[in-house]
Amino acid sequence: MAARGELETYQAKRRFDETPEPKGRKGAGKTKARRYLIQRHAATRLHYDFRIEIDGVLKSWAVTKAPSRDVSVKRLAVEVEDHPLDYGGFEGTIPAGNYGAGTVQMWDEGTWEPQESDLEEAFRKGQIKMVLHGERLVGKWALIRLRTDRGKPSKRSNWLLIKEKDEFAVAGEGDALMEIDASVTTGRSLAEIAEGRKQWTASKKTGQKAPPKPRASKALASTATKPPAFTPIQLCKVVDHPPSGAGWAHEIKFDGYRMQVAVGGGKAKLYTRSGLDWSKKFPEHAADAAKWPDAVLDGELCALAEDHMPDFSALQAAISDGETGDLIYFAFDLLFEGGEDLRTLPLSHRKARLQAYMDRIPKAARSRIRFVEHFASTGQAVLESACRMDLEGVISKTLSAPYSAGRSTTWVKSKCRGRDEVVIGGWTSEGSRFRSLIVGVQDVDAKAGRGLRHLGRVGTGYSQLLIKGLLPALQAHETEDNPFVGKGAPRKSSAGGLTTHWVRPVLVAEIEHGGYTDSGSLRQAAFKGLREDKPAAEVDAAPQEAAKPAKGGKVAAPPQLKIGLTGKARAVVAGLTISNPDRVLWPAVDGHPAITKLELVSFYEAAAERILPHVADRPVSIIRAPEGIAGEVFFQRHAMPGSNPRLKLIDVKERKPYVGVVDVGGLVAIGQSGGLELHPWGCAPGDPETPDQITFDLDPDEGLDFGDVIAAARAMKVRLEKLGLNPFCKTTGGKGLHVVVPIKADARSRIEWDQCKAFAKAVSEQVRLEAPDRFTTTLAKKARGGKIFLDYLRNGRMATAVAPWSPRARPGAGIAFPLSWGQVKAGLDPKVFTLRTYPALLKKPDPWAEFRAGAVSLKPLLKIVL
Predict the structure, then answer these.
(1) Active-site residue 722, yes or no?
(2) Does 208 reside within a domain?
(3) Whole-prediction pTM value?
(4) Could you say which DSSP state residue 823 is in?
């Protein structure tokens, strides 16, 4: 079949007076970007219609099962007739007796681009390689046509749909995406699309039945004029590892307050996990919810920090100050809608209903609510992504399970880091100054009876704002009785100027910590806030299990805290959890030791003050090597699903934003993801459309001595200084040098990218003409002939150059090191600037400290040079 599209077969198979499908015509609805979509089709058999826009039509394949992001899984894809472009908006039911009778759901949509320029030739060969930009499928995919033993295309035009290896591949995913039953455009399940239609074709023949209508809730129906009463909530069981296999959905565990929102009769109430009415604490959210359709939602109320990460301390502060308007409610379940009790429905149905429900919320009342997406990839992959984002963990839920109050095995929680609730038993003070909390968990001692088992002191994490709310709560429950029991229980003391105060064991604190000692005490515990939503009686399971005596009498540290859920060691750098810190990124070479991921992120943290002035708030392309330079190395420009919230998303007027960093946390997040090189745009911070520097890349031909490159840099310096510019020089971490000129980017001096590139080209040509035997401005290798290539091409929009202090993904672990001109002389050896020598390099003054101060307006020079 050729790539040219036709619709005669499509139209001949359909009776458009009976079917709601569009008749269409070739090219109608054509878009600038090529459309891609998948329609889930419950016909005689459930299948997935894969469609890509080519030559004014949708080329189409019927795929037997949902695509899999596992590169080892191949899906049979039967080529079918071309469809019109406006079929890409069709969702509904095709009446019985018509071709393709059944319900159609928009399962995925987006755009695609070919990996090869000649699509005619790709069809002829039977190999269509694509890059998909969908809601559910992204990255590289391929359609491969099956062939007979004679090497000819098969008569049935059978193909295979295969995921290609890239950063979006999910090993071991298998059939997990089969569980997703929700439209990407309306949020409806197949049953909901078909509901109420006589043409619904799920029958004995297909073995499917439309689900029964849920029974009406008497509690909800009887309170139509007011919000429903509290509904007991479902809770999680804690596990060491997320479940694997199909049938599970994995959600991010948010760090906030569990909150149930009940809406009825134009009013709303917000209940805590134990049923307390906290509507008055969150008046803005209650006012918003009063405008929602009648329902009961389950979710988590969070405060988001400046880096868009949930921040429990900020939540506490907001509640304490009564400034709760910026809190966000993350909704993950829908228990009732109108008069329907949805709790008996499978989770997949409830979430689809929730998404559709949220679409009906008036825009004016929707700014403080977010839908919690779930992932059907392997639980371990989701957990590792959550840990990379420095989140608390993952909640895994059975997609087919109903909602049931209490703890069950259908909802389980896996943690990334040492985060627990503990009971406060006392505090210490020095004079009038608060010093630390004394904490434990509920336990029973054989002699003393029930009390608190001592876990240690929590000595950090106290801002003045937190203490302002904490101290009155402690003083309100102060007592003379020591609540701690058993071996190791603390005693009252005034030694060292510290005074011990006891409190009744009723207050719950959330803490973050680095695990447990062999004796069961907390390591490096930090206070995050009070948990007013949890009773102290519940706080006994996790820490108690963590400190359970092991064989030999020692206390076993919890594996997820000591070695991490992946079985690998973990570390924390700049507040981010680093998975696999011992992974070798640069192998040992020439007697020098290997360099690990922990050493890379430690470098990013240490060198942040030198790196950030050159990369902060600019689009950055990253060279990543998650398994080290000996493994797969790839270039990342765009932000990907699950990008660390420490990274900024920068709009560059493309379909997807670019990655950017603004602080040390962003640099460490890049290192955590295996980002070895930083290549920023040469633009002004916060303004991708305005250049603020010009880079001349001096790239020597094979066989040239580094002394030749040094001479070239000095020649370029002379030329630029004659123009009144202030050039700087850096190594590239390889065999070349960069000469970089800062230019002004204010409103009066601003130039366009085309002007910047043209200026760089003109200067390079001038240097070449002065010594044509030494320099070339031609990119082709064959034109170099023992010359140095003056690369001016790094100065266009979207062009990049390696940043000062950026490591290089090459043997030796070199750094692109900023030089003083006094260093650019005979004997300069770029190999001495590496990740192994950076501590000594950082102790020296920064040669580029005055880089921005040397900026000159380029506008007057454009008329001279161009």
Answers:
(1) no
(2) no
(3) 0.42
(4) G
